[in-house]
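Record passed on here:
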Amino acid sequence: MSAAPEQEVEVERLKHELAQLRTEFQDFTYSVSHDLRAPLRHIRAFTQVIEEDLPDAPPDIRAHLATIHQSAQLLTQQLDGLLMLSRLGQQAVKLQAVQVLPLLQSVLDELQQQQPQRQLQWHMAQDFPELWADADLLRQVFSHVLDNAMKFTRKRELAQINITWQWMMPVDSEDMKLCQITISDNGIGFVPEQASKLFKVFAKLHPVRDFEGLGLGLVASRKLLAHMGGSIGISAQVNGGCQVQISLPSRQ
């Protein structure tokens, strides 16, 4: 049965609106990646020129110039972060059966090589089921979450990070079950009521001077998992560690 004329008109209208939104989004992305960077480059360059022209400037003036330079650098990093987020929605998704254990091990090895001096104790399940996911996107998710676990256990003499899994409710398919992977650590944690804030762009619950980063890892992970039909949650206690739950379908 063919659609009614009014339904066809509505579909065409929605297609037109979607095309307009895509065009506006592309314009925004271009502005972020090109137009907004030029003023920031000028601010940073002329701040350096002033510092060189005034080598004997009073300490307070030099401190002001340093603050301007650091703020411009931070804004540049934030623009890079927004551009990264905008591109996540444009990535092609190739769903297939993914072996979790070697993927996790590869990410762990890479992160540990970046901080060879850290005392880290990993406990990881060895019997993960295959997930129905995109291997490249899932690798990005694991990198974000495990990097956070390493970051927020930095002040522990011995960082402990556990990676376990369990079956959850079945999804709407006879050959699919939902697998939840939990990554827990013994880090500093946070106030439980503030968990939802961590999924907002640039949200940070701890001072930048203590923990670097833009606050985009969980936001990016949620977008990536949504593309694969998955989800992410987080819980914690102050000084009681943090638990991140990643849920994805598993083909059985």
